[in-house]
Design goal:
The relative contact order is 0.14. 35% of the residues lie in helices and 13% in strands. It contains 9 helices and 6 strands. The chain is globular. Strands 1, 2, 3, 4, 5 and 6 form a 6-stranded antiparallel β-sheet that branches. The longest helix is centred in the N-terminal third of the chain and has 12 residues. It is an alpha+beta fold and 240 residues long.
Length: 240
């Protein structure tokens, strides 16, 4: 879906670094900072740091190619732009010339294959990127996985507790006072989902775990296409 046109804003750019200037041009083309973060497969706070902490040098080549694709190639699809950016993103190097380590939380999966990852509204809006390593590692280890989603009750197509919707879900359905509902899909008892197959869905969605889950729920007739996931949890285990 093409981005919405945005009003042209021209902050004093003389003091901005190259990453911030390129991000400005993408925003003028209709992309938000959150969109740019999704394209770079990073947290939205990093894009803000282009302006406040002079960061982003490692992403300049990617941003240039993305901007060219948008302005001259007419490409507007976020997954396509994400794939393009990934091919032109290089890791920082240390003073000795070695690749710098990336500060990130380790993906913790126990020897039994048990792992859990949860995200809420802010992370979901940027594609639940922190869950992608968990899914990828689960696929590498050939694990099974299940997920719990929370959304407005009106977003579900089947009534609460329906076995057609999710047989064997944990404690059936969790209903909340704010008219949202949690439902779980898959368990060790029912076999769950093949992590490798789900990882392929995530890759096809440009790394957007939320979009991959949403697509599965729509394709299998469980939620309305316009329903919004506001909480997502993924659990893994090793098949017996």
């Amino acid at each position: 879906m093409p981005p919405r046109p945005r009003r042209n804003h021209s902050p004093a750019s003389s003091g901005l670094n190259e990453a911030a200037r390129l991000a400005d041009r993408l925003q003028q083309a209709g992309y938000t900072k959150r969109d740019i973060a999704r394209i770079l497969n990073r947290d939205p706070s990093l894009v803000s740091q282009f302006y406040t902490k002079n960061k982003g040098a490692a992403f300049v080549p990617a941003l240039r190619h993305v901007l060219t694709a948008v302005e001259t190639g007419g490409i507007t699809d976020l997954p396509e732009l994400t794939a393009l950016a990934a091919r032109h993103t290089t890791r920082r190097t240390t003073a000795s010339g070695t690749r710098a380590r990336v500060r990130s939380k380790a993906v913790l999966i126990t020897p039994t294959g048990t792992g859990t990852g949860r995200v809420a509204a802010q992370a979901i809006a940027s594609g639940s990127a922190r869950l992608r390593p968990l899914v990828a590692e689960a696929a590498r280890q050939r694990l099974r996985l299940a997920f719990t989603v929370r959304l407005a009750r009106t977003g579900y197509l089947h009534p609460s507790g329906s076995r057609t919707d999710s047989p064997g879900i944990r404690r059936d359905v969790v209903q909340r006072a704010d008219h949202t509902e949690e439902r779980s899909y898959g368990s060790a008892q029912t076999g769950g989902h093949d992590a490798a197959g789900f990882a392929r869905r995530v890759d096809a969605a440009g790394g957007d775990v939320t979009a991959a889950v949403h697509q599965w729920l729509v394709e299998t007739g469980r939620i309305r296409p316009d329903a919004h996931i506001i909480h997502l949890e993924i659990r893994t285990w090793r098949p017996r």
